[in-house]
Amino acid sequence: MTSRTDTVREFAPAKINLFLHVGEKRNDSFHELESLVVFADVGDVLEFAPSDTLTLTLNGPYAKGLQAESDNLVLRAARALAAHSGNAQGATMSLTKNLPVASGIGGGSADAAAALRGLAKLWKFNVLPAELQRMAEDLGSDVPVCIAGKSAWMEGRGERVTPAGTLPGMAMVLVNPGVAVPTADVFRGLKSRRGTGKVDHAARMKQPGELIAFLKSTTNDLEAPARAIAPVIGEVLGELSRMPGIELWRMSGSGATCFGLFEDTNSAAMATIALSHSHPSWWATAARITSGQGRPG
Predict the structure, then answer these.
(1) Cβ proximity of 16 and 255 under 8 Å
(2) Cα–Cα distance, 55 to 106 (Å, whole number)
(3) Cα dihedral 279, 236, 209, 157 in deg (nearest 10)
(4) pLDDT tens across 35-53, in order?
């Protein structure tokens, strides 16, 4: 029987693209990207325990959205780590899925990164961060930035990750209207783009006002094509814009989750209550920008 001391627990925080600029398509068919990424104190939770085989169980409010996947990112990450080490081992893995699936906040990518971190601990593999980063690149564009789970500049197709330092821990509200927007379709619908390399990475963002001022000079290039596919995204942004105390509202990633940054925790909490009452079918939660990997759940 496995004891609690044998179990490794990892938090997989939601990833938020505070801005996302898109450049030209590269030779590998991926677009050049530039984004400032932060992580929230809400997310999924993974647990790992020793076993002779590799298995994954799903639970939580959004587990149903993954039931049809026979080979999701968590399993792929586990197999990649075992292959890299040359020492195949098993594990019983449990994923509590608290974040909506395919929602633009890196749920699957954060889960894969947490699997790499957690299994390295469980299996006592001495894996360097650079090695985890290379494995992450092969798993998906958003996985590398999720390895450290800290505020970072994300460039290239997502493989170039540079720490952004400590940003103010502003209160936020995350809202998803319950629609999945295929990323490939969003990129195909892209008609105009800001381009990359035009943002000052040395801009001062230590205070909330400084961060908001910087973000107002940026955009999310994918918001327009995503709204064309799912007009409800515009409705979400409209609702957020009317909330007292909000400083900035925007879509994250390729959608459909949107976020609002608020001047204080109470304003974010009240906005969450208001949105939950007016649109009970939407997922809405108050959160905060964290400096690390959030809370362990």
Answers:
(1) no
(2) 22
(3) 130
(4) 999 999 999 999 999 999 9
Using alpha carbons, select from 81, 101, 99 the residue that is nearest to residue 91. 81
Look up residue 4 and give its DSSP letter: G
Q: pLDDT tens, 121-130?
A: 999 999 888 8
Alpha helices per DSSP H over the chain: 73-85, 107-122, 129-139, 143-148, 183-188, 208-215, 223-229, 232-241, 265-278
What distance in Å separates the CA atoms of residue 222 and residue 220, rounded to the nearest whole number? 5
Across the strands, what pairs with 154?
A: 35, 161
Name the CATH architecture for the domain at 4-163: 2-Layer Sandwich (3.30)
Catalytic: 15? yes
In sequence order, which residues have a C-beta less than 8 Å from that of residue 42 and are 6 or more positions away?
13, 14, 98, 99, 174, 285, 287, 294
Q: In angstroms, rounded to a whole number, what is the distance separating the alpha carbons of residues 104 and 267?
A: 24
pTM, full prediction: 0.93
* Stretch 209-232: mean pLDDT: 97
**Could you tell me the CATH superfamily of domain 171-290?**
GHMP kinase, C-terminal domain (3.30.70.890)
Name the residue ranges covered by the structural domains of the chain: 4-163, 171-290
> Which one of the listed residues 15, 111, 150, 221 is annotated catalytic?
15
Name the catalytic one among 97, 142, 150, 221: 142
In angstroms, the CA 160 to CA 196 distance is: 13
